[in-house]
User: Fold these one by one.
Assistant:
Number 1:
Amino acid sequence: MQPKAIIFDLDGVLTDTSEYHYQAWKKLADDEGIPFTREENDTHLRGVGRRESLAYIIRGRHYSEDQIQEMMDRKNKYYNEKVKQMTPKELVAGGRELLTEIRKAGIKTAIASVSKNCQMVLDLLQITDLFDGIADGNCVMNSKPAPDIFVYAAGLVHVHTIDCLGVEDANAGIEAIKTAGMQALGIGPKERFQRADKVLATMENVHLQDLLIQK
Ligand code: B16
Ligand code: MG
């Protein structure tokens, strides 16, 4: 079934900023002497908002709200140091061609990212103009797996959620998409996702036809 809108997550789908998020959290955890592994990042932090991610890392330890705020700012500073070097080369291979193909087919394109750095990353990748709507971490209160960011993005492009296809690299994001009533495409290893309607190992050099879910 052809959707009327395709709503993309950003980090880990259109670019590999998920690695930069991990490196920034790892640096913060090391500063604080808290053990934190790549496996934990993949299982518990992928696609999850800034505050919820920190809550996982410091779980069981006491910090004041001021300290929590300072740690979130510090992680964001580390993340920005990495991200500000980004160039359009870090867009997934074939990404510009895919987005252009989707729009040529008369399907709306939107972003649903809970990152507050989303707009800066889209600008550095030079793809802002390829989206009909951009929903980021400044638009909604509740982070994925809540459906809010995908519902908001569907509203921006005036398409009912039932007519949307959501694309995500995180299981929390797939949960958000399914709860919003959309078709869900997972990007990554099959074992990562519980409710995805379809899974692709990678977004590299894919075409519109590859994204569609056959019903
Ligand atoms: P920020 P997405 C998410 O973006 C990231 O996957 C996640 O790792 C990050 O913690 C979250 O954004 C908040 O990002 O700290 O930049 O506001 O996957 O929804 O595009
Ligand atoms: Mg993601």
Number 2:
Amino acid sequence: MKILVTGGAGYVGSHTCVELLNAGFEVVVADDLSNSSELALRRIEKITGKRVLFYQVDLCHKTNMREIFEEEQIGAVVHCAGLKSVAESVILPLEYYYNHLASTLILCNTMQAYGVRNLVLCSSGRVYGMPEHIPVDEACPVGNNVTPYGRVMVMVEEILRDLHTADPRWKIMFMRFFNPVGAHPSGLIGESPSGTPNNLMPYITEVAVGEEKCVGIFGDDYPTPDGTCIRDYIHVCDVAKGLRMALQHILALPDDTTGLVDAYNLGTGQGHSVLELVHEFEKVVGHPIPYEIRQRRPGDIPVDYCDPSKAERELGWRAEHTIAEMCRDAYNWRRKNPKGFGN
Ligand code: UFG
């Protein structure tokens, strides 16, 4: 079966393509390459020995989407495309609302027109905002004090719930991932942010290889044991596996099932502080990583890690990679690709 992966040349998207191809699916990628590179697709082919069909399209244009569904027999969609920086969304809210809402509306409209109703959405742990309880489970209310990025993902999920209400034949899963890090163990694909990275792991990696002087830690006066924020870091290959298993779950449902719409957390269930991550990385590289304490970053919440047990119970998925493997693979990727994909 052909699976359309939107954002398939991006960080999570490329690892998902590998996972899908290795599981025997055919993969069609739609990506505008605004924050990714076609080289990632060649690397996916190198890892898997299989071909990736590619459409360079802006998902916010209806005619582009129709062209893909006209040409290819798409059976399901994994929707990874979209802007994803929490901090940037606070500064550029309109861009974030437009990007996610327009692309999802056009995608679903086109899927409906072509009778494709199987959708796995890359959502985010950020939908919970300031979580009501920790560890965050799927029963935790969404939308509490969220950033524009979190809010638009809540909106996207609500739109998809309405779509399912209107036509219960849709099968939709929201995969809410926490902090994806690391890279494929081959070192052939990984995160390739354009410019200075915003996120913690890529920044630590730059300091580890001497490209940046020191890691700025945004606040050490949070109510946590060492004062720095706690997150649920998860290996990107575990995320990709979760997306693949969600897709297989949907596709295994009998045809006469009245669809489904459901949400799953993808995380390890363990929190690590910013300082702990720096120290884990030091163990991998074998030398100290300089850091300094800076001011808190707007929009950050002190503690955020999830209860991933629903995904284990219902999908048979659990994260396998350790924090040491996440650091090792991020470092390996960076050393083999000093300029990322050069995008
Ligand atoms: N941090 C630093 N220094 C840095 C970068 C980050 O101290 O240079 C801190 C942040 O303040 C935060 C923690 O490291 O406390 C993690 O920050 P990231 O930017 O790496 O990640 P976020 O938790 O802000 O957001 C990430 C992704 C989102 C995703 C979210 C949860 O960027 O796309 O995880 O799923 F939605």
Number 3:
Amino acid sequence: GKMGYAMAKAACRRGAKVVLISGPTSLDSPRGVEVVRVRTAKEMEEAVLQYFAAASIIIKAAAVSDYKPVEVLEQKMKKGDKNLMLELCGTPDILKRLGGIKGGRILVGFAAETENVVENAETKLKEKNLDLIVTNDVSMPDSGFGTDTNRVTLIFRDGRREPLPLMSKDELADVILDKVIGIKR
Ligand code: C5P
């Protein structure tokens, strides 16, 4: 979404060769960035793995759906008069997979939380073998999905926590890149 596009634009402005792997969105493709459009988590996983070997920094801002329907119908489903149960199964955790094969690459994740924000994000940083996780409380009105601003806490691999003030997603993208550059591999 907006945060991923802001990251891609900021990195491109700094002269990085950027590949933006994007799920469905109405945002315009940033100029100077190679955009790969995908629809499902599986397609995103395949695209990410394809570009992974050549990448030195991977920033995963995509809000990937954690579940998908087990069954997908060809035709419109007719309504019945009973309650409807949908069976969902998990999607691949792309970032976790990358964490297992990261080598010398820098991996940055995002975590959208509504409770125990910092603690949950720290667990994710460890589970997914990240260098940095950008954490926000999505229950706040000025932070998270669809907004142009974000209020986040950065959490580093060495345990350092850095709460940042409210700022635009464009400004935040630059702050994140400054921090990424400072990470020792
Ligand atoms: O576990 P959770 O979904 O909260 O973790 C968020 C981070 O993991 C984000 O960086 C997101 O892009 C990534 N993720 C992923 N594949 C998924 C779910 C999340 O890469 N299926």
Number 4:
Amino acid sequence: MKEICLMGGTFDPVHFGHLVVAEEVRQRFHLDKVVFIPAGKPPHKTDKVILDAQHRVNMIRLAIASNPYFEISTIEVERRGLSYTVDTIEQLRRSFQVESIYFITGADAILEILTWKDVERLLSMAYLIAATRPGYDLNNLEETLKSLPTPFMKRILPLEVPALAISSSDIRKRVREGKSIKYLLPESVEGYIYHNNIYVAK
Ligand code: ATP
Ligand code: MG
């Protein structure tokens, strides 16, 4: 039986922050694989323009090519309409026949997640790993967790990771402004962005 970890996000584009967190979680919890799941049209980002899914998928494929433990699932980008994490987890749990599922999310997103559709069902199927971003005060999260019912609390695992202060929005802005994005994401992804003229102001 396998234990796998899912890493959801828009990955617009994928960067070293995502990759280093995924690798840290995999190692820390002795997981068999990490599956990156680019979002189709995330319910909480409906107001945002997101890059074409095919480009985001291609960039993830390039970024994970050198790590045998990393995989991608296009389940959410192929689904019509809005994607809910809880539906994704349920579907992947069935198709991968796994024992436990861990779901990585930024600690800063936990509060938001607790407002998601079917959070109880979500926590009954998966552990939520709350990865802390740079500058994040872990006390905040601990305070939040304390206010939750115990069964919920036990399914949320805070984890300090050597995360980098890198974000996709900063990378997009840098490209738009003609600034360097070197050392923020894999070279293959950097090359892909320039080759396809992605993120440059139209
Ligand atoms: P954007 O700037 O567009 O919001 P992002 O860099 O936050 O993009 P997402 O695709 O939104 O990237 O993130 C996917 C997941 O990865 C989220 O759970 C997010 O909290 C986490 N994450 C993103 N960047 C980092 C980072 N530098 N360190 C740790 N976790 C990160
Ligand atoms: Mg984000």
